[in-house]
Amino acid sequence: MKKYDIKDIKLAADGKNRIEWAERNMPVLRLIREDFTKKKPLAGQTLAACLHVTSETANLLITLKAGGARVVTCASNPLSTQDDVAAALVKYYGIPTYAVKGESNKVYYSHILMALDHKPTLTMDDGADTVSVIHKTHRHLIPGIIGGTEETTTGVIRLKAMEKEGVLEYPIMAVNEAMTKHLFDNRYGTGQSTLDGVLRATNILLAGSTLVIAGYGWCGKGLAMRGKGAGANVIVTEVDPVKALEAKMDGFMVMPMIEAAPRGDLFITVTGDINVIRGEHFLKMKDNAIVANSGHFNVEIDIPALEKIAAAKKEVKPFVVEYRLKSGRRVNVLAEGRLVNLASAEGHPSMVMDMSFANQAKGAEYMVANHSRLEKKVYDVPLDIDRRIAEIKLKSMGVNLEKLTAQQEKYLNSWQEGT
Ligand code: ADE
């Protein structure tokens, strides 16, 4: 069994500093860690975490270890690993880590297999790749697994498809569905970190530019809000009539991609679907248009179609590849169409990952305590966990809640009183 596979162990000291910096803005996870250290709710478990290997994830893994689990980790995306953090996890925290920024798809999957060599009893995914590999080729592990958790919208969609087909073999807690996850991480996290990724890669001016956002889910909403705040003219493309209506009433232009294509300066996909920007769209774009993705998988931008219609291609700076079309117009693709916020920036800020990962830690604890009565289904995080995380977060921000008076409590529980 390989103990670890990382870029360079000498990066560990930098990684440790980065992990400690993130921890300052993760008060909810810190409280959970204190509690886990005392109670050891994960004792006896081996947890394989296939997550973006960042300083925030490191704080989650350290918390899970404090809870008594043996923890191993691998990347959930070939471009999202922070190599210094991976080194620190190995050197200072004793967590076997298999992740190298820029790894090929082949190495990416080999890293998942290395994590599975540890024979996990619990899985923790961001995108459901571990669950998928286990169900396809590592079914011998299934009898030993009590359950798993899933971080992201795309992963939850995949797992619900497995449940619907009757092929899911163990229960999963859908962390993404917690309100203290998607309302904050997807909206404020993606909103800020995606623009951060685009700006670090390109240094373009957003003010006065036209930003086309494909998808108006929670990620798209956050992105549109932040784009508008930075002075961009925002166009939204949507397939869902209710979401499209919401975008329109939020003050954005709404139109199909084929109409948005000639207008946009910057295009960002956050739909979770395949081939959202295709050959016919690239052909209509202005010279020097920039295209990026912040959805989980690198399938939203049809890069193979772009390769076909391009006359030339070159890397103009890190994370920016320019395709020159036969017309002479240039289309720039960021981060190979992979998650731009994690590839060319550092992902969501710690302040927001604090809540997402508090749900992960509490979700794992819940799974251990309740797995024997759970079915092979995808479960939401219980509401009391969600509310508790919101309460602790508010407290850490110095915000107090209003309290119901006895009279208000009675009023809310009665049906007799009207006007
Ligand atoms: N997903 C988005 N941002 C992240 C971060 N900073 N760490 C881990 N996973 C993330």
Could you provide a short overview of the structure?
The chain has 419 residues and is an alpha/beta fold. It has helices spanning 12-23, 27-39, 55-66, 83-91, 105-116, 129-137, 153-165, 179-202, 218-229, 241-249, 257-260, 279-282, 303-309, 340-343, 350-370, 383-396, 406-412, and strands at 46-51, 70-75, 97-98, 122-125, 147-150, 172-174, 210-214, 233-237, 253-254, 266-269, 289-293, 310-317, 320-325, 330-334, 378-380.
Short descriptors:
Rossmann fold; binds adenine; 44% helix; 17 helices; single chain; globular; 2 domains; 419 residues; 7-stranded parallel sheet; 16% strand; alpha/beta
Report on the structure:
With 419 residues, the protein is α/β, with parallel strands linked by helices. It has two domains: 222 residues, Rossmann fold (3-Layer(aba) Sandwich), CATH 3.40.50; 155 residues, NAD(P)-binding Rossmann-like Domain (Rossmann fold, 3-Layer(aba) Sandwich). 44% of the residues lie in helices and 16% in strands. The protein is built from 17 helices and 15 strands. The strands form two sheets. It has an eight-stranded mixed β-sheet with strand order 9-8-7-10-11-14-13-12. Strands 3-2-1-4-5-6-15 form a seven-stranded parallel β-sheet, with helices on both faces. Strand 1, helix 3 and strand 2 form a beta-alpha-beta unit. Helix 3 packs parallel to helix 15 and helix 8 runs antiparallel to helix 15. The radius of gyration is 22 Å and the shape is globular. The protein starts with 11 loop residues before the first helix and ends in a 7-residue tail after the last helix. The relative contact order is 0.13. The mean pLDDT is 97. The site of adenine (ADE) has 10 residues, from helix 3.
